[in-house]
Each structure stands twice: as C-alpha cells, then as structure tokens.
Amino acid sequence: MEEDDAMDCMVGATWDLNKGLAARSRGIRSEIIKTPLGMRQLGEWSGEREFSGFKEEKVTMRRIIIMDRELKAGKEMVAAMFEKQDQLIAENLELRERCLNLESTVKVNHEMKNTLEEIKRENSALKGKCTNYEAALQGLQEKLDSNLETGKEMSERKLDEWKKIWKKEREEEKVFFAEVVKQQIKVIKEKEELVRDMVDKRMCIVIYGLEEKKNPVKFVREEDEKEMVKEIISVVQDKEQSLDKETEEIYELGKYSEGTKRPQKVKMRLQIEILARTRKLAEKAEYKHIWIKREMNQVEREKERELRSEAKEKSEGRTENEKKFYWRVLDMRLRKWYIWEGEGKHLESCTCIQT
Fold first, then answer.
1. Per the database entry, which stretches of residues form a coiled coil (predicted)?
2. C-alpha closest to that of 254 among 245, 246, 265
3. In terms of domains, do 287 and 322 share one?
4. How far apart are CA 230 and CA 266, in angstroms?
5. Is the pTM of this model over 0.90?
6. pLDDT tens-digit profile of 165-191?
7. For the chain, how many structural domains are there in total?
8. Measured between alpha carbons, how far is residue 121 from residues 124, 125, 149, 162, 193 in Å?
C-alpha cells in the first residue's frame, strides 16, 4: 500500500509537470507547478532538471520500501528465534529432571547389588561351615571305626562309654549346626524381604488430595476411585504414551470416612515416567490440589522429615539477596528453587542442587 501511494504521488507530480510544459508550449504562462517536494518555479531548464529528480526519488522510494520489507522479515525471524529459545529452555528443564530421577534409580540399583553381594558372601561362609562340620563328623566316624578295630581288646564297658561319648558329641553338634542354619536362614529371609520391599516401593506411587467418594457401596466407590486415578495418570502422561494402562494395583490407604482425602497407592512398572511429569497437574485448575510422590519406607520418611525441617529453617533465615530463591526437598536432597516473576504472575521455576 505504501509503495502504491508513493507511485501515485510521483505519477501525479509528473502529470502536473507535463501539464505545465504543454501549457507553456501553447503560449500559456504557467511558471509554478506542484511536486512531491512542494511548489516549484518552472524556469527555462527547470523542467528537465525536476523530471530527472523525480526518477531519483522513485528509485529511492523503492529502496525504502524494500528495506522496510526486509526489516519486517527480520523482526519475524527474531520473534521465531525467541519462541524457539523458550521451547528449548522448557525441554532442557524436563531433561534435567529426568536425569536426576535416573541418577536416583542408579543409586538404588547399586544398593541392591551390594545387598545381594553381601547375601552371597554369607551363603559362602555358611557353606564353608557346613563343609567343616561334615569333615568333623567324618573324623569322628573314622575315629569310631579305628576304635572298633581295637574294641576286641577292650571290655564291653569301655566300648559302651566310647559310644555314649560319640553319640553325645554328635547330638551336640547336630543341635549347634541346626541353630546356625536356622539363624542363617532367618538372616537370608530378612534380606530377601528387604530387597523385595525396596523393589516393590520403587514400583509404587502415592497420589494425595483425592476427595473420598460419597457412596456407601465399597465396590462401586473403589471402581470410581480407580477411574479417577487413571484419569490423573492420563493427565500427567504425554500424548503418545499410555501409562494409565500400565497400572497393576490401586488401593486406598487408611479407613473410609466420607468427605476425607485418603491417599491412593498405585503399583505400576513405570514409576519414573510418572514422577518426572507431575508438574503437569499444576497446569490445570481442577488438579492443582492433587500431588504425586513415590512410596517410602520408615527410614526414608524420617529422613525426608528431617530435610524438610532443615529446608524450613534455611528458608526463614534467608538474607535480602537470597530471597530470589527458597529451599525445597526434592528426591531426598536439599535444593534451591529459583523464581522469576514478571507481569504480576509466576513465570518459570528451576532447581539447583545444593553445593
């Protein structure tokens, strides 16, 4: 549109100039004409000079229009680059969270490996003891056999005494051996239960904030709550995923009471995928009061309680320069939670591991 207006203005000025020249050739006195630069006095050679100036102004106007188009294209390119930068920042934050979750999983696997190695060492020690006991019993048997060879020279009373001593020693060794085996089996079972409990808890998540359904029929109420749990998991998962179909068990923790919010324990194979995307619940108003955590044992809960107390003390004792962040407990560690605010609302947050 600007280019068309400029061309119309130049055409009009050229028409006025031609009109003045034509009038002059007919003997009509026309000394003043209208140009884009204002009113001009037409002299003997001014027509040709002004006309050449119009050509230069037309070229200049075209250059200005081309530069304006290039400037607009540059602005659009810069805006696209800023949008791409924001997208890359969000992806970087998500990848950082996933890396931290993978580090915690590797740590747990390492602990389980150490536990299994300890059980293997205990089994090896138990096998060694069994071998020693068998060798001792074999020695006693050989001793008895050798004594039997000389038993003909001994009295029956002496032989009976040897038999009684041998039987007594054998019974004592059997009792001792049974006690040792019983203790070792108990230790092995405890280790197996500990490993099984760790594996089970690594496959479970706990959903908090779900309000109890107002239905006295337990079966119907549980079915409704299972559907709600699957709906929450579908909100957290990505579009191409189907984590809501990976749930194995869903059951409530605590006793039923109408109007309360009992935690829901969910057992599934892809716990890390769910925990890495829990922030999606805060993006929807109807799920802001719901949060998801992994299931913890008593030791982990006590450790988390201590870390939360420490984080609260550190957050309350911040200086003015430190109020751009506050302390939080994430993945059983204290971290700084930075906050950027703009236009009166919370824009973005990221975590930084405590050093």
1. 102-143
2. 265
3. no
4. 10
5. no
6. 888 888 887 777 778 777 777 766 666
7. 4
8. 5, 6, 42, 38, 18
**Is residue 271 domain-shared with residue 337, that is, in the same domain?**
no
The mean-pLDDT minimum among 67-71, 146-150, 280-284, 295-299 falls in 146-150
Question: 124 and 163: one domain?
Answer: yes
d(CA 168, CA 209): 66
- Bridge partners (DSSP) of residue 330 are 333
The residues, ordered by sequence, that sit 6+ positions from 264 with a Cβ below 8 Å of its Cβ are: 206, 207, 210, 225, 229, 250, 251, 252, 253
* pLDDT digits 0-9 by tens, 271-322: 666 666 677 777 777 777 777 777 777 777 788 888 889 988 888 888 877 7
Burial of 327 (0-12, 13-18, 19+ CB in 10 A): buried
pLDDT of 162 over the 70 cut: yes
How far is C-alpha 43 from the geometric centre of its chain's CA atoms?
82
Q: What does the DSSP assignment read for 137-157?
A: HHHHHHHHHHHHHTTTTS-HH
Structural domain contains residue 209: yes
**Statement to judge: residues 111 and 197 lie in one domain:** yes
On whether both 218 and 285 belong to a single domain, the answer is yes
Q: What is the CATH number of the domain that holds 243?
A: 3.30.70
Domain containing 70: what range?
A: 2-81
